[in-house]
């Protein structure tokens, strides 16, 4: 059975974000449609800023290419450390905490080592490695590991999160410029963030000020759904003024 046009285009967009490129002939064969249909899909994705047409197919738009975890972690380290310190103040001893796989969230994990009797659930290989030799009780969620971000994703991850009730969740973002909420590059990681939001009493987004001038493809929630944004003092005052209408802003 052939898939609906929008469903097919959404799947092609996911393939682009995961693999960086797609082949028009392979897509036509996979979906049982003509080369002309796939060409129209490519035009649609290009017009929406997701793809750029290439020889025999398309490549992901440069601005949407997902940087590796290492590339993210070496940027704005001083700001991330300050944000992490401020975020850690929100965690009381004895808390159950959800941590996703962002580089700023990794900085929070290092701060949580100083807390007493806390339990951490995470889908981040890096976070688990930081906490494994500490006094923190840490649970690494099961699922498929994404090599780009070192995040664990998929149906197993989501099922585990559905059974957890946490006091607070800390979520990273790739950017939110001009959007109604924080965004991420990957559909599967967006699903995990949304599941963490449902499983936590408080949801805190952590992001350095550069994310206010960056965008990403997938919005995983609205600012009204977030209890606070922790960021650094270099963020544009106009952005703060707008966001304060929707959520609490905590400056590091």
From TrEMBL:
Key word Transcription present: yes
On whether Transport is a keyword of this UniProt record, the answer is no
One Pfam assignment: HTH_DeoR
What is the top-level taxon of the source organism?
Bacteria
Q: Which UniProt keywords apply?
A: DNA-binding, Repressor, Transcription, Transcription regulation
InterPro entries reported for this sequence: Carb_Metab_HTH_regulators, DeoR-like_C, DeoR_HTH, NagB/RpiA_transferase-like, Tscrpt_reg_HTH_DeoR_CS, WH-like_DNA-bd_sf, WH_DNA-bd_sf
Q: Where is the HTH deoR-type domain?
A: 5-60
Any single GO molecular-function term of the entry would be: DNA-binding transcription factor activity
Role noted for this protein: Repressor of the lactose catabolism operon. Galactose-6-phosphate is the inducer.
Q: What is this protein called?
A: Lactose phosphotransferase system repressor
Q: Which organism is it from?
A: Christensenella hongkongensis
